[in-house]
Write a structure and sequence with these properties.
A hairpin with a 4-residue loop joins strand 2 and strand 3. This protein is an alpha/beta fold. It is 38% helix and 16% strand. It starts with a helix and ends with a helix. It is globular. The chain has a 7-stranded mixed β-sheet, sandwiched between helices. A 4-stranded mixed β-sheet has the order 1-2-3-13. Strands 11-12-15-14 form a 4-stranded antiparallel β-sheet, with helices on one face.
């Protein structure tokens, strides 16, 4: 392992982060478990950063990929592609967007990049509204709208970005307010902001902020925002790269917790739909999707092998009601973690929805972030046989828990017990 780590450092960028003091090489997985090079088994509560959505080595996906690879792997979007059309039909129907069109990419970053291109072209404006504490990818334009300093290495941007309050419920200037008052204050702030700028193209928002530590506003905030946006002709882009496909349990899409005023104009997706295969994409109303007046293709977006995987994965997800499982098992897991946290002064909050759970850590007796504790908990959890993630934005530090949606009750109990021991050890 040390040899591989040395080779990694010799040829890969210094900024390419690795977890753990002794970095881990995962060799294979099955169900909700993965194994390392020494044969040790781990319960996986992070799923390749929310990407292995259903299960490792899911037989239906493995079979679909193998059979498609034996026929043809790739031909580009210059040719008709049956698996791409079939998956686009399913996603258009599930999106909730009327007269929907779907464009496939290779990642969530590229999906958000495409959504920004569509919105700015359609609206003839390069001003974009984004949420504080947000993360939207690593491309030049996505970095330019990311409201999280830890993931934004450049101040240069092709866009003018204005940041809006509301993505973080329990911190910031409105944290002391009740939910209704919080929403009203954020709406007032948005309306005031729009009075000081030229008309923006769109608001882009994650229903639950992923990299930012699984934070979210009260239900209905983005519906209230949409009422204001529509008055100004401004588009709403829902970044569902992490929240889509039933992960939040209560809804198939995260935006549906804010659906009172109708669906978003544009939805972006990626990660879980491919169950590890590289799929991203954009869903938008036809008039928006078709607004580009120049040719465009995608060499690798929508390639046959990834579309076959996505179709098999989506079918499995729906047929086995994994959204319902996320709601039931995720609710149990949150309950267990909150019971543990109640006795630990270093845990500020356990939050989340379905199988998207954040545990925010602070220095005991303060409200200050404790990134050292987060790193220590990650290490202790690994020693106990559990893999989790971490994140956070401005002066926050959070553990990120997002197992495959097929997680069983027994596995949730096991993972909660390991994480409880890790939290106590780091206290």
């Amino acid at each position: 392992m040390n040899d591989l780590y040395d080779r990694h450092r010799a040829v890969l960028p210094d900024w390419l982060a690795l977890y753990y003091e002794d970095p881990l090489e995962i060799t294979h997985g099955e169900g909700r478990h993965v194994w390392d090079t020494e044969g040790r088994r781990y319960l996986d509560f992070f799923g390749g950063i929310l990407t292995t959505m259903t299960a490792h080595a899911l037989p239906e996906v493995t079979k679909a990929v193998s059979e498609q690879a034996a026929r043809i792997i790739h031909s580009s979007t210059l040719y008709l592609n049956r698996p791409m059309v079939e998956l686009a039909e399913r996603i258009a129907q599930l999106s909730g967007i009327p007269d929907a069109r779907v464009f496939f990419t290779t990642s969530g970053t590229e999906a958000n990049d495409t959504a920004l291109l569509l919105a700015t072209t359609y609206r003839r404006s390069n001003t974009v509204l984004a949420m504080r504490n947000s993360y939207h990818g690593r491309s030049f334009s996505a970095i330019g709208i990311t409201g999280n300093r830890s993931w934004s290495p450049s101040s240069l941007s092709p866009l003018q970005t204005l940041y809006v309050h509301g993505g973080v419920r329990t911190r910031g200037p409105f944290a002391h307010l009740g939910d209704d008052e919080f929403v009203a204050a954020c709406v007032d702030d948005l309306e005031d902001l729009l009075g000081h700028t030229r008309p923006p193209a769109a608001l882009i928002a994650e229903p639950i902020q992923g990299v930012g530590g699984f934070t979210s506003p009260p239900d209905g905030l983005y519906a209230a925002f949409r009422d204001v946006l529509e008055d100004h002709g401004i588009l709403w882009i829902a970044d569902e790269v992490q929240t889509g496909w039933g992960r939040t349990g209560d809804h198939f899409w995260g935006w549906q917790a804010h659906g009172r005023s109708g669906p978003p104009d544009i939805v972006t997706f990626a990660k879980g739909i491919g169950n590890g295969m590289s799929i991203g994409g954009v869903v938008a109303r036809a008039e928006i999707m078709n607004c580009l007046d120049a040719n465009s293709i995608s060499t690798f977006g929508g390639t046959q092998i990834t579309m076959a995987a996505g179709l098999a994965n989506l079918n499995h997800l729906v047929e086995h009601d994994l959204q319902g499982n996320a709601r039931r098992v995720g609710g149990l897991l949150i309950e267990r973690l909150r019971a543990v946290a109640a006795g630990l002064p270093g845990v500020r909050e356990v939050r989340g929805r379905g199988l998207m759970i954040g545990v925010e850590l602070v220095r005991p007796g303060t409200d200050e972030a404790d990134p050292r504790a987060a790193a220590a908990v990650l290490e202790a959890a690994r020693e106990g046989g559990l893999l989790i993630g971490k994140g956070g934005g401005h002066d926050t530090s959070a553990l990120r828990i997002a197992p495959p949606l097929s997680l069983t009750v027994a596995e949730a109990e096991e993972g909660a017990a390991i994480l409880a021991d890790a939290l106590r050890a780091a206290s």
